[in-house]
Every structure is written in structure tokens, then in C-alpha cells.
Amino acid sequence: xxxxxxxxxxxxxxxxxxxxxxxxxxxxxxxxxxxxxxxxxxxxxxxxxxxxxxxxxxxxxxxxxxxxxxxxxxxxxxxxxxxxxxxxxxxxxxxxxxxxxxxxxxxxxxxxxxxxxxxxxxxxxxxxxxxxxxxxxxxxxxxxxxxxxxxxxxxxxxxxxxxxxxxxxxxxxxxxxxxxxxxxxxxxxxxxxxxxxxxxxxxxxxxxxxxxxxxxxxxxxxxxxxxxxxxxxxxxxxxxxxxxxxxxxxxxxxxxxxxxxxxxxxxxxxxxxxxxxxxxxxxxxxxxxxxxxxxxxxxxxxxxxxxxxxxxxxxxxxxxxxxxxxxxxxxxxxxxxxxxxxxxxxxxxxxxxxxxxxxxxxxxxxxxxxxxxxxxxxxxxxxxxxxxxxxxxxxxxxxxxxxxxxxxxxxxxxxxxxxxxxxxxxxxxxx
Length: 431
Ligand code: SDX
Fold this sequence. Notes:
By secondary structure, the chain is mainly alpha-helical.
């Protein structure tokens, strides 16, 4: 924790309170209100946490005004073009880019943990085939605490490390199994001779009846999607993981909680909702109708894939994904995909519309990802599971940072109570 140099004064009920302020390495100053209730007897009020720093962290920095995203200081566009997912996992987990030897050791450790306990296959068979893969993912990842007891003690650094590697290694396998189960095809075991992204495509799309060759360009596009979704400061699902972890719950249960939160259409579920919206729009001539609905206060409809709590300029990930969408669809010979045309026209229309300009609504990470994933052959129901497997390293890196923090304590917010004050029970005959 940085030491506090500056202070702020709060005048309240005739008293003046001195509040320490932290100066971060980047971003706005932070007012330390930890002693406010004890000193002044008041709470602060911030539903949705629009102005609240819930923790200190050294992992990811976002500048919403500049549209900047740094992982351990490295800009996301450089990582997306020069790095690969497991190297970014190492960076997020340990704080520095690995040497060649460190990377080889880390990749070997992850590769050797990609298989799941064979008993988990039975666990899968309890689900209905038509279950949404996110429902299966939440259940199976939560159940990992019933299969990997030797890495659930959060006070043992070795077990924390093994749990982190197991989650990064097994989420692609479990997500692929959820997909295979939903389409009635046999599970495909991971292969140690394939890299992380190629292995995932292999586990999703190969069948025992024939050889499957992973297209290296698709594997590269898959890996870039993993990188772009890896971590994002204290978003809703990461905050869920941190809050669940603050009670001392085991890492598998906490990551399952993060997956559940990510599923919501306002968060990670937006990639599926966005593609379904583009399909509902269907053709460019229907865009004005949907723009009007998005602006209509009486219509709950929102442009999925647009807007962001932090980015009030472009989401740097959307810029990379837009370029990747062009590359992948051209490679697949579907560059004239009508959905891509609708998406580009919708983006241009919205970016030139006064409502979206005034409210600073730009395409976010979920706007183009679905177009790429659908072109790669994934059903929309697999979009958020892919987001979840990508974000696992972010969740677990933030979890590790929090657990290792000696100041870590259980999260327990207060409230603005507007209910009934004390009153006596009334017997039913007198009601
Ligand atoms: C992710 O936090 C993260 O970092 C998340 C994420 C990550 O990597 O973890 O980046 C991933 O979740 C991206 C966001 C995906 N969600 C969507 O695309 C769903 C559509 N977007 C919105 O629901 C919304 O923009 C949010 C949820 C993303 C942000 O909501 P905020 O910050 O709470 O903003 P708000 O709801 O208060 O909206 C501000 C105004 C409102 O109008 P007024 O009440 O001021 O008149 O903008 C309007 C909103 O009605 N608005 C939209 C809109 N988003 C906001 N109007 C139309 N379409 C939209 N998409």
C-alpha cells in the first residue's frame, strides 16, 4: 500500500475530519474512508460502485478516457500482437514477462494439468443435454472442489499455486466438454502436442471418426481472443471472485461464483446477446429501428456490445477484435458475412448519433467477438464459456493477489436502510 501524503477535509455536523488520500501509480487519487464510520458515524453510498476502489492491485490498469488497458504495464494491443495466452497468463500471475526457461516450465505445468478427473465424466451425465453450457460450467467448476481436495487449502502457497494452474489448464477442457455434451458428441481428450488455443479447438471440433487439423490462423485468432478477455481490473465477476474469496472459500468455489456473475447479459453474456441482436436486426435497413429503440427510455432494449462503465472512449480490445474479425472472415471466405456488414454499419450509425456520442457509448469487447466466434463454428451458447475460460487467469491472479495481502479481510458492505423502524408483532386475529 502506498503511504498517504495528501489529505482531504470533510466538514460534517460542525466537525472537520481529515481523510488520508492515496496517490496511485496511475489513475485518480483515492480517498481513504476506512475510518470514516468510526470517526464520523456516517456511511458512504455508492450502489454499483461507480466511485469506489474496492482494493489496491498491481495487475491491470484501465484508463477509460484514453481507452487504455495495461496488464502489468504492458498495453493490450502489444500483448495481442506480440504475445500468446499462456505467456500473458504468466505475466498476470507472476508480474513479469517470463524468460524462455520460465515460459517452458509454466507451459509444461499447464499442459500436464489439462486432463480432468475421469469421475467428472459421470458428473456431466447428470445434466440435461440441452442445458446452457454456462450452467454446466458453473456446476462442474464448483464441483472441482469435490475432486481436487489437495489444492483447496488457501493458506498453503503450494496448494494455491496448484489450484491456479489446474484452473487455467482445465477450464478449456471443461468448456469443450460442455460443448460436446450439448451436441451429443463424445468428449475429446486434450493433447499435449498442441498449444493452448489449438488444443481447445481440437477438443471442440475434432471427432473420433476422422483426422482433425487445426488451422494455425484460426488457432492464432482463438489465442488472441483469450488474451483480450484475460483480465479487466475490478469488473463485476472479478469483484464477485474477490468477495467470495474474502470469506476463505476455496478457489474452485470462488471461480464458479465468478462464472455465474459473468453469465449476465450486462457483463460476459453480452457477446451472446450481441450476436442474437445482430441476427434480429438482420439487414442494414433495419438499423434505424433498433437505434431508435435503444434511445427510447420506455424501451428496455439496449444495444448489446455497446457502452462500458469505465471506457468513455473506445474499448482497445474492440479495436483489435474488429481487425481480427476482418482477417478471420476473409480467411474463411465469409468476408461478406451479412452480420459483419450489419455490425460495421451499426457501429458507424451509433458513433455518429448524438445520443451515443453524448452518453459516450462505444463498441466494447463483446461487440465483435461473437462475429469471430460464430465464423469459427461456435454456437452462440459457447460465447460466454469462451469468455469465462479466458478470464479464469484474471480471476485467479486477482484471487492470489488478494489472498497474499496481509490486510485481506472479509468483505462486508453496509446499507442505506429505508425500511420500517422497530414495531411490535400483531397477532393474526388483529390484522
Ligand atoms: C463487459 O466492467 C468490465 O470491465 C466488463 C468487461 C470485462 O472485460 O470484464 O469489459 C466486459 O461486461 C463489457 C460490457 C458488456 N455489456 C454490454 O454490452 C451490455 C450493454 N451495455 C450496457 O448494459 C451498459 O453499457 C453497461 C452495463 C456495459 C454499463 O452500464 P453503466 O456503466 O452502469 O451505465 P448505465 O447503465 O448507467 O448507462 C448510462 C446511460 C444510461 O442512460 P441514462 O439513464 O443516463 O439516460 O447510457 C445508457 C443508459 O440507458 N446506455 C445505453 C447502453 N448502455 C448504456 N443505451 C443504449 N444501449 C446501450 N448499450
